[in-house]
Amino acid sequence: MSQATLHVLQTCPFSWKVRGLVEHLGLDVAEVQVNAMRTKKELSFTNGWNKVPVFTDENGEVVVDSTPIMVYIDENYNNSVLTQSSGEERYDSMLAHVDEAWKRATIPILYGSLGAALSTTRRVSKLEKFGFISRRLYAWAGFPIMWGIIARKRVKKDGRTPKKLWHDLLTEYTESFDGEPFFGGQQPNLVDFAAFGYMRSISPFKQFKHLEEHEKGMNWYNLMVQQLK
Fold first, then answer.
1. pLDDT tens for residues 189-219?
2. Structure pTM?
3. Where are the domains of the chain?
4. 89-225 adopts what CATH topology?
5. What is the DSSP string of 30-78?
């Protein structure tokens, strides 16, 4: 029986979702950093998925897509403790909302202005696994694409600044706790770890300071940090 593995990109929010759960449970999982420019080749064993994260358990079972991976890990390594509320409207609707709205909010906060995009791409080029040429190419050629083609369009369509968008998401989320410290109650559930992963993926970047200005959001975030082993 081999060791379980998790193929990731260091700055991928979907990877951060699963990494947080793995850390929380203290699982013995080998993390494999994928070359950002060679995902198709390095993830060829997924039969065409070609995206991170990818989880492979000790028996060689391959699971793809972040939320299904989290559910699989909770079911097989944690007696489904974090997914007990699965099937309930409150749980299912918030998990779907986090996976859609929070996912879409990550690019605007990181690439929503020309300066932010340049800062982010340069940071990504240092954190991710690139070749010598591709690292420099991404650092200096990537930011006009991420800002001009993707992020600016999303910001314009939403109508809010990236900071306001995130503050609204955090307010909406923390107000759904009904006075408890987590969405899951006294203890976090899978929804909390999904939301935490998206927010945590921004923490290596200077734009995280905008999220730190949301008091209730940071109170919850810091409690989530304490859940990691």
1. 999 999 999 999 999 999 999 999 999 999 9
2. 0.88
3. 4-83, 89-225
4. Glutathione S-transferase Yfyf (Class Pi); Chain A, domain 2 (1.20.1050)
5. EEEEPBTT-HHHHTGGGSS---S-EEE-TT--EEESHHHHHHHHHHHHS
